[in-house]
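ENCODED BACKBONE
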Amino acid sequence: MPATFPDEKTSPGFSKSRRDVMAERRSKMTHQEIRQNFLAFFKERGHTIVPSSSLLPNDPSVLFTTAGMQQFKPYYTGEADPIKDFGALNTTSIQKSMRTSDIDEVGDERHLTFFEMMGNFSFGGYFKEKAIQFAHEFITKEMGLKIDYITVFEGESGVPADEESEKIWKSIDPKIEVKKFGRADNFWGPTGDQGPCGPTTEIYIDGIEIWNIVFNQYFQHSDKTLEQLKTPGIDTGMGLERLVMVSQNVPTIFETDLFTPLLKPLPLELDSRQRRIISDHLRAAVFLLSDSIAPSNKDQGYVLRRLLRRVLTIEHQLKLSPQVFENVLLSVIENFGAFYPNLVEHKNDIINAYFAESAKFKKTLAQGLKELERIAEIDAPAAFKLYESFGLPFEVVKDIAGEKAKNLTREAFDEEFKKHQEKSRAGSERKFGGHGLLLDTGELKAANEEEVKIVTRLHTATHLLHAALRKVLGADVKQAGSDITAERLRFDFSFPRKLTPEEIKQVEDTVNEAVKQDVIVTKEELSYEDALKTGALSFFKLKYPPKVNVYSVGDFSKELCGGPHVTHSGEIGQFKIKKEEAVSAGVRRIRAVVDPE
């Protein structure tokens, strides 16, 4: 039976209003219960629950997954079929997300690096009316919260005002306050350099934006022009941390049960800023490590290294026991493991990777801090030298140097970093003859001649892997992206489910059989149209020139590619799949290595 509430104005001795009782109930809801309520609410309304995709997106234009809709981009544009993949036009998810723009601000009451986005999505199943009705019902009835006001798009730059959304809100609640803003506030751009976008309506509670509902009516091209989508869609995002905060009625996100277990192992003598930095950075590190991101000086690994080295510097300065931060890492795994079981599965790997980075950093940290103390004023060149020589990230230098670094800015430091990269790139071009294998350039990454040999073997191995996947899983498998370093290859491909251990073994054996046959790798230059007629595979996201190179590995594999490749398959070595996982809806990812025989 649903609970009933007597009228507080007429019931003798009644001391609690209905709102008080609802607030008390809400404050007792854990973040796990809020998650379950959200997903169950939308499942009951015809949405398929889709697991979070990886923090490593298959979109090369972005460093991390930053929003729930990223894994669904192909469904808005018609490149993928939601009925085939989900059995419905509507989905819901809670997406782990990462943004790096606010790293310098972490330590205050609200900024985070890692966060979670709750969302419901529709690819032609419903549009504005139902999206607004769902949001209003979940917030006011399921969660028992009061909406302060909502915002809508007032129209700007040739895009008309969203009068329809305002009418829908007023039909649901005639007294609701509506505020109107332009493109800077109420028009959501695409994730990456192009993609679906449109006007938004936002829900505010306790003065905080809780839920952003995007009406994907347009496709924004890389030149910023807008094209009307054939089928408009819904993309919503609600920050879990903010919802938990207003639901549990606490003043900051760090006082929710998302963070209190993480803060508990920390010594009381740490100030609030240090406690927030540690809990945020170690939480983010756990999730990055669980997605097989390793600390490095490149791309996502560089961000992870910055986070870890910032907290390791605090540990060194305050002479904390290494056990303290290990306990925080374990608390993250325990607190989030029920919803993200891969954290528990990879617990030992996460802890070991953390201590490996700690040991590496501690060798030079003390020297770096001594050098930092010696410098009278730290400008961008000095800060970059501290990073280059001792591995001290910008945040560490800024935190420790205090007044000596008061004029040091992130922009100036990044400019120094950029200058260094350009010098390295120029050096690589001279060293390798400008044949395309430059530092941090696209799919292949190699820093020296030895690494060039390794990535060449791995690159040819991706051709064999692609062919093997199609032989084992069917011809519907298509490449969705790849990334190759001297440590491993990463290959993304379209497939709707997890591979079985038997299928992984079969793919691995198929590749190794092609390696064992030691067949010749040949190259043929053809027109793009003629190349496709030969049956050569292409990567659908790339734009090919009129003339292309077709590489064949015997009769086993034939693909359009820019190279480089080994001369015969036996050079590749023993192929080993290390991990198979989901990267987004309908896209899987394989990580593999090769060992020379």
